[in-house]
Amino acid sequence: MKWSPRKPAGRIAYVDGRYVVHGEAGVHVEDRGLQLGDSVYEVWRLRAGRLLDLEEHFDRLERSLGEIAMAMPMSRAAFKQVLSEIVRRNTLTDGIVYLQVTRGSVRRDHPLPDNPPKPSVILTARRLDTAALDKKLSHGISVITLADERWGRCDIKSTQLLANALAKTAGKKAGAGEVWLVDRDGFVTEGASTTAWIVDLEGRLRTRPLSSAILPGVTRRMLLQVAEHLQIPVLERAFTVKEAKAAREAFISSATSAAMPVIAIDGVHLGDGTPGPVTLALQAHYLKQA
Fold it and tell me: What are the coiled-coil residue ranges (predicted)?
């Protein structure tokens, strides 16, 4: 899907069927997303007027909603019309579009309501600093590692992100571009908002297999297809922090970052401290076909 921008009219959000000024957008005080984190979300990267991996993000949205016993609040076709309009009203060609679906507003109580209210649908969009992103993609970032303290269903793209937010804050204070979370056995699960990858000493692309411990990243899924096309050997197997620090290359992936090179882990530089050839090949091919 591709759209053309129009004359700017201020930042606009979508909430429950209405397009409203971003600063005036809101939900009911007893919305379960606000009160209990009873909600899921999706993120699309808008690049050159096109939402990347559009259908794949809808696939994951439907899965997340199904895992928490919520139905899609509208059809994909209707969602696409809203996405198109929110991009148009915000005059975006490069940016990020966030979708949140909550269970709606009802008297606060922990159990899921017997008679569910109408879900709340919230869409916001913002411009992306593409110059800063391109610089990071060219030069790479550093990561630090922390204990993974999140809940046990990380495969659901829930808005319950407090542990992620605290990890991100620690990473920012340390001057790192991302935080890799580590399970009790010493294996990297994923980044605080990204998928973690390495190219191991045998030249294989390694990333943790899908389970309830990690989010099924859409960009992860697409990069695995790119790797197959480029005939890069892939091993979906967890790796330790020690293995990561000894790896030939490392990178993170997300809707925003594509394949973002990691050049240092906990202060230990990988190779010569510059983005590696496998990472750059994956990045270039993904962005070319996106």
Answer: none
